[in-house]
Write a structure and sequence with these properties.
Blueprint (H helix, E strand, L loop, with lengths): L1 H45 L4 H18 L7 E3 L4 H11 L2 H20 L11 H23 L20 H10 L3 H16 L11 H16 L20 H5 L13 H28 L8 H18 L4 E3 L1 H9 L6 H16 L1 H4 L4 H15 L2 H9 L2 H16 L2 H22 L2 E8 L2 E8 L2 E2 L4 H9 L5 E6 L5 E2 L1 H13 L6 E5 L12 H8 L1
Parallel strand pairs: 4-6, 5-7, 6-8
Antiparallel strand pairs: 1-2, 3-4
Helix pairs in contact: 1-2, 1-12, 1-13, 2-11, 2-13, 3-10, 4-10, 4-11, 5-6, 5-10, 5-15, 5-17, 5-18, 7-8, 7-15, 8-15, 10-11, 10-12, 12-15, 16-17, 17-18, 19-20
Amino acid sequence: MQSGNSIFSRLEVKKYILKKNLKRDLPSSIVVFLVALPLCLGIALASGAPLFAGLITGIVGGVVVASLSGSQLSVSGPAAGLTAIVLGAISQLGAYQTFLLAVVLAGVIQIILGLLKGGTIGNYFPSSVIEGMLAAIGLTLILKQLPHALGVDSDFFGDESFFQKDNENTFSAISGALGHFSLAAIVISVLSILILVFWPKFKKLSVVPAPLVVVVIGVVLTIVFHGGNYALEAKQMVEIPVVNSWSEFTGLFAAPDFSQITNGKVWVVAATIAVVASLETLLSIEAVDKIDPIKRVSPTNRELVAQGTGNMVSGLLGGLPLTSVIVRSSANVNAGGRTKMSAIFHGVWLLLSLLFIPGIINMIPLACLAAILLVTGYKLARIELFKHMYHKGWDQFVPFVITIVAVLLTDLLKGVAIGMLFSIFYLLRTNMRNPYFYKIQEEGNKKNLRIKLAEEVSFLNKAAIQVVLNKIPKETNVIIDGSNSRYIDPDVLETIFNYKHNAYTKGIIVILENIKEQYTVPKLNNKIIEEINN
């Protein structure tokens, strides 16, 4: 009876939380839907896949992945970082159905990685690199969306790479846009930015989400400009497939070719997608947790299982590989989302818009969506973040800036990898400089030197310790104290014992305190961890 009451009370709590957060999640889901819609289409186009495949991926990312995920704010869908891999894979495998099999297998591999606790790799990304990645994504959004805000839509909407497929780069595209802008698009984007900035400041008006107002005004202005000299072109609008019947809708789906299961190329593509998608997801999850106002921590292993399941479903339905995407996730956070219901609703809106209102959706100008992303980008790359990282010291600021520059000039994974190298350099440098501290005492003509070793003394500290020992003057009493040390590397131990053995030739007396002849690498107590998790 007590158990039944407990279950009932838990259900009541969940209903209360759902109802409480719905007023935030519902408007946020509309914002994410509006941002995700052109991104899904643009990424599908750049990947050489059917446009419908991008929408399927977005729907699966919202409904399936969000339902299984432990992250409350992450939004999944097709990722711009995978476009080059997908484009090459479809060409290499020769048929889209064969590629879909690789997507399904990639999902299986991700589930296995999650069950094997592979998600813990996300804990090893330094904070400075993650903050740099967020700022870089913000700056990328600003730089990439400026041409769309000016009405120049030569590249696809979801392009995040520095070098574009139209032989332009980020800066040349902006330069070209300044000379070939559309007055109507500028009016729409400027008005949209003003609404996004000032609308939330009025409490009575803020009941209606500012991005929704932006979209409505964008549609109205498109109608106003239609037929005149400043009318927007088709490429400056959202464009989704128009489905006129249920048979047309079902005919858009594609099924994987399971007869290619023994094809070695399929498995190579599957493994590549699984690894790259998992890394992008873990980076995104880490970044989203940092900008979560409530500072929740997402279970990364569960996320890999959710992503794997999503990729299996997406592949079976004819969709693209998906990941957790920082652009959509940050838009969700900035729009006020609180729980995973926002991501789930966004998937539902994608499906309903495709079925019932494709004509209305195709009236939305890309300029107003670009304005939403411009404001999101500014919030990610705000000036206060740069000041904050600068005050944390050069060991944090340098990897932060390097990550930003590297992501802007390459892509997300390469940029983070370069930032990691610089972060590791500063980590090693700090570690090498802090293997010990010492204290000198004088008793008459004799000097007593106490060297207290750090908690962890690795082989990286060997050179620093050797330098100090070699500089100790003659006729000195030296105490090497290892009472704080949980681990001392064998190379360092050898250096210490050799020094003690030879020090008498200089009249130096060496006393070793709490230093063992051998140390084992400290391990986590798995039993304690299991008890905590339970």
